[in-house]
Amino acid sequence: MAGTFISMTTGTLRGMIELGFALSLGVMLDTCVVRPVLVPAFLALLERVRWGSPSTGETRSLASTERGKSAIGRW
Q: What is the CA 57 to chain-centroid distance, rounded?
């Protein structure tokens, strides 16, 4: 997909060149940084918040932190 967008940079219209560059850069950042690095890191942090830190032995779930809220907002 990035290759398709980079082919837009071969044109003569300035707007198309800028759009092709921006889209291809965005796809490459998503492929090389966001999905392999940021998504697993976010999920690890979410798991730590949801189930507690493995080093302290404390367990804390989202349900226990949402006491007092309506049942509609729970998962």
A: 28
DSSP notation for the chain: -HHHHHGGGGSS-HHHHHHHHHHHHHHHHIIIIIIIIIHHHHHHHHHHHHH--TTT-----HHHHTTTS-GGG--
- Please count the residues of the chain: 75
- Whole-angstrom distance, CA of residue 7 vs CA of residue 21: 9
- The pTM of the full predicted model, rounded to 2 decimals, is 0.59
Q: Which of 48, 60, 2 is nearest to 26 (CA)?
A: 2
Separation CA 22–CA 15 (nearest Å): 11
Average pLDDT, 10 consecutive residues per value, the chain (75 residues)? 90 93 94 94 90 60 54 54
